[in-house]
Specification:
Number of strands: 8
Shape: globular
Structural class: alpha+beta
Order of helices and strands: EHHEEEHEHEEE
Number of domains: 1
CATH class: Alpha Beta
Strand content: 25-35%
Helix content: 10-25%
Number of helices: 4
CATH topology: Aminopeptidase
CATH superfamily: Gcn5-related N-acetyltransferase (GNAT)
């Protein structure tokens, strides 16, 4: 369902506090807000998009640098997440809008692989496929693991997320 007239654009420097507040509102702890801040502080953001209604940021999706260690060495990849929408605007298509904007930006930057841990009924609508991730060992077990191959040649190996991810509760 998409019943919004939100503007979706790349994150700007003045958006940081509002993005933090979106994640705090959407999640039970500050873990995701802290993760976004740490990834930003470490210069690991590949794409970051916000949804704005009026003068209020109501949604956010982050794409950050990670790697897949293969037999031939490390391959730069992208992690999707965290994604957040303020509770009173969830189920209005805002999460999908910021995800699609980030996917477009990530493709335009020539990235080869995006990985996501997330709901298996939600992410396939954007092109994420569990069979892509089957070739890549996840650092977490038991979580739905999907990937999107943007380059055509299958990548196999072990996912390596940067240190801030290890602090996520």
């Amino acid at each position: 369902m998409n019943n919004t007239s939100a503007i979706v654009r790349e994150e700007e420097a003045d958006d940081v506090e509002a993005i933090t507040n979106v994640h705090r509102a959407a999640f039970k702890t500050d873990a995701e807000a802290n993760l976004v801040a740490e990834l930003r502080d470490e210069g690991l953001i590949v794409a970051s998009h916000v949804a704005i209604e009026g003068d209020r940021i109501v949604g956010h999706a982050l794409y950050s640098r990670m790697y897949v260690d293969t037999d031939d060495g490390a391959v730069a990849a992208v992690a999707l997440g965290p994604i957040a929408v303020v509770p009173d605007r969830q189920r209005a298509g805002l999460g999908g809008a910021v995800i699609r904007a980030g996917l477009e930006a990530t493709r335009a930057r020539g990235e080869v692989l995006i990985l996501v841990l997330g709901h298996p009924a939600y992410y396939p609508r954007f092109g994420f496929d569990p069979t892509v991730a089957e070739r890549i060992a996840a650092p977490w077990s038991g979580l739905p693991w999907m990937g999107m191959d943007l380059h055509g040649d299958p990548i196999s190996g072990r996912a390596r997320y940067p240190e801030p991810w290890s602090r996520l509760d």
